[in-house]
């Protein structure tokens, strides 16, 4: 479980984020890990205090990111922090007005995050020690989360960014394709959905609407064809 709390309850100031492991049968707390996470001045949390991102479990580790972009790797059994990053302070990621909400995506020995900004639209970290495997591209971030797909035998990470949807090679970060998807205020929130016959569905409000793309491999490159778009479904 992941929630926010106050360092001093009587103050009414919710300035911490807490990761909690509970026993599934009894509901008893196994461990808690908390850290300081005061809101940034540019953030508007009137729509929900957060955190907005689900924890990701991989083997004996838990990966979490809070609304202020504090990224942690914790020991699943003890809750001990093994390593951490502040995506905003360290990498100058896109500050999300309503809070960071990208769920960490595991791939092989890496974990992938949408960060946004110049040369680190997407970032990949080593699961074991948190070192940066690669960071590339210039797209502003959104409130969506990346997904892993396979296009005719090639693994790709697909991310719905601020005004575009992109596909990259998870090994080296090579941009394989991109397609415009305008969304007012950049509020692309839902995750893309990968379906049968290489069809990719994406949807957003604020003018974005919904569209389906067909992806295929031609001559070693990914071909993107729009099947349909509708502003009525969003």
Detail the topology: elements first, then pairings.
Blueprint: E1 2-6, E2 14-22, E3 29-36, E4 56-58, E5 61-65, E6 70-75, E7 81-86, H1 87-91, E8 105-107, E9 110-114, E10 122-126, E11 132-136, E12 147-151, E13 154-160, E14 164-168, E15 175-180, E16 193-195, E17 199-204, E18 209-218, E19 221-230
Plain-language structure description:
It is a single chain. The chain is mainly β. It has one helix spanning 87-91, and strands at residues 2-6, 14-22, 29-36, 56-58, 61-65, 70-75, 81-86, 105-107, 110-114, 122-126, 132-136, 147-151, 154-160, 164-168, 175-180, 193-195, 199-204, 209-218, 221-230. The chain has two domains: 1-103, Thrombin, subunit H, CATH 2.40.10.480; 145-234, Thrombin, subunit H. The protein contains one helix and 19 strands. A hairpin with a 5-residue loop joins strand 10 and strand 11. The longest helix is centred in the middle third of the chain and has 5 residues, at 87-91. The strands form five sheets. Strands 4-5-6-7 form a four-stranded antiparallel β-sheet. Strands 8-9-10-11 form a four-stranded antiparallel β-sheet, with no helix packed on it. Residues 6-12 have low confidence and may be disordered. 34% of the residues are buried.
């Amino acid at each position: 479980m992941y929630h926010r709390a106050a360092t001093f309850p009587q103050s009414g100031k919710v300035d911490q984020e807490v990761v909690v492991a509970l026993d599934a049968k009894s509901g008893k707390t196994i461990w808690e890990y908390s850290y300081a996470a005061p809101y940034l001045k540019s953030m508007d949390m009137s729509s929900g205090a957060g955190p907005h991102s689900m924890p990701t479990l991989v083997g004996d580790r838990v990966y979490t990111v809070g609304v202020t972009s504090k990224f942690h790797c914790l020991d699943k059994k003890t809750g001990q922090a093994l390593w951490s990053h502040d995506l905003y302070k360290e990498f100058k990621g896109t500050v999300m007005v309503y809070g960071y909400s990208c769920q960490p995506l595991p791939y092989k020995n890496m974990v992938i995050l949408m960060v946004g900004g110049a040369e680190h639209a997407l970032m990949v970290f080593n699961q074991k020690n948190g070192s940066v495997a690669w960071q590339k591209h210039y797209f502003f971030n959104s409130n969506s989360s990346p997904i892993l797909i396979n296009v005719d035998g090639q693994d790709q990470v697909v991310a719905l960014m601020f005004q575009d949807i992109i596909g990259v090679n998870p090994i080296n970060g090579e941009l394989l394709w991109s397609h415009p998807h305008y969304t007012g205020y950049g509020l692309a929130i839902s995750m893309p959905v990968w379906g049968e016959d290489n069809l990719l569905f994406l949807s957003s409000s604020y003018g974005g609407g919904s569209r389906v793309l067909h992806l295929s491999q031609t001559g070693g490159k990914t071909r993107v064809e729009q099947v349909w778009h509708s502003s009525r479904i969003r």
